[in-house]
Specification:
This protein is of the alpha/beta class. It has one domain (about 5-205): Aldolase class I (TIM Barrel, Alpha-Beta Barrel), CATH 3.20.20. It has helices at about 15-25, 40-55, 70-75, 90-95, 105-115, 140-155, 170-175, 185-190, 195-205; strands spanning about 5-10, 30-35, 60-65, 80, 100-105, 120-125, 160-165, 180-185.
Length: about 210
């Protein structure tokens, strides 16, 4: 099963994204997502291959965001698709042996993702975040409690990652809602002591 702490790349340039991934891996991250937008498939593939090379060195898994072709060409472990991206069915035709995760914002989305048989769900956003341009309605802790409760009632067992503007103090309460793991970006990118932070996060999420 995938690691419970999921780092999503940030940076002003594709090279900065890869540099931040390198630093996160060096600090103990085992699951990284390369999230590049408004870029050609060729350039995306170039940086995905660099990120994949780094992941191999650290025995970590690479997630490619929003591009099945790049996922295939870079041989990433995982492909993550947003709500407005390619359908899960089409993606499975391109990368049949790759794990696929899908974004959700409501319980209806969760049901759809479970029906699509995704390997995990990225449920969010928890709070407002500047990382994403078109942000879905913010869920807050109450939203997670409600949706995770609905999943339990319907016996839906697809692992859920909480995502979107999550700070360190949010992690313990979020894990109590029944989510499988936590996806963060800025929390790790901007940390002065990434290694210590990652150890502390892992302690919380693996003992929740």
């Amino acid at each position: 099963m995938l690691h419970k702490l999921h780092y999503i790349s940030q940076g002003d340039t594709p090279a900065a994204h890869v540099l931040n991934i390198s630093t996160a891996l060096d600090s103990g991250i085992k699951l990284v997502q390369l999230r590049l937008k408004h870029i050609t498939d060729e350039r995306y593939t170039e940086y995905a291959l660099k990120a994949q090379e780094l992941c191999k060195q650290y025995n970590a898994h690479l997630v490619v965001n929003d591009n099945a072709l790049v996922s295939k060409l870079s041989n990433s472990s995982v492909l993550h698709l947003g709500l407005e991206d390619m359908s899960i069915t089409d993606a499975k035709n391109i990368v049949p042996s790759t794990l696929i995760g899908g974004t959700a914002n409501t319980f209806d989305h969760v049901q759809q993702r479970c029906a699509d048989q995704v390997d995990y769900i990225g449920l969010g956003p928890y709070r407002f975040t500047t990382t994403k341009k078109k942000l879905s309605p913010v869920l807050g802790l109450e939203g997670y409690n409600t949706i995770m409760g609905q999943m339990k009632k319907q016996e839906l067992t697809t692992p859920v990652y909480a995502i979107g503007g999550i700070e360190f103090e949010d992690i313990a309460p979020l894990m109590k809602t029944g989510v499988y793991g936590i996806a963060v970006s800025g929390l790790i990118t901007h940390s002065k002591n990434k290694e210590q932070l990652i150890k502390e996060i892992n302690k919380i999420i693996y003992h929740a």
